[in-house]
């Protein structure tokens, strides 16, 4: 797998959107990555819906086997590190221009 496209999009816990290219060449467009405190996770593309007046989200793609799901989660999180580090890294004191 590899990250086929990255777009920074800082809103709330969201860091950005990305397209994930699978080893067979298929591309899953519109995945998103989030970080809150020391927790980081990503989601397949989702649709928003209302239930009992509450906004909920449902994934378009599901990996039913839990072991496989967490393996893919970890692999993609590792692939995202260079993009996230560039996005989420705070300025250092020596980077301040004054």
Key features of this structure:
98 residues; alpha+beta; Arylsulfatase, C-terminal domain; four-stranded antiparallel beta sheet; two-stranded antiparallel ribbon; 1 helix; 23% helix; 46% strand; globular
Number of helical runs? 1
CATH class: Alpha Beta
Show unreliable segments: 90-95
Question: How do the helices and strands follow one another from N- to C-terminus?
Answer: EEEEEEH
CATH architectural category: 2-Layer Sandwich
Rough outline: globular
Give the radius of gyration: 16 Å
The multimeric state of the shown protein is: single chain
Termini separation? 42 Å
Which band does the percent of strand residues land in? Answer: over 45%
In short:
The chain has 98 residues and is α+β, with helices and mostly antiparallel strands. It has one helix spanning 66-88, and strands spanning 2-11, 14-21, 27-36, 39-43, 46-51, 54-59.
Describe this structure in words.
The structure is a single chain. This protein is an alpha+beta fold. The chain has a single domain (2-89), classed as 2-Layer Sandwich (Arylsulfatase, C-terminal domain), CATH 3.30.1120. The protein is built from 1 helix and 6 strands, in the order E-E-E-E-E-E-H. The protein has a 4-stranded antiparallel sheet with strand order 1-2-3-4, with helices on one face. The longest helix is centred in the C-terminal third of the chain and has 23 residues, at 66-88. The chain is globular and about 40 Å long. Mean pLDDT is 89; it is low at 90-95.
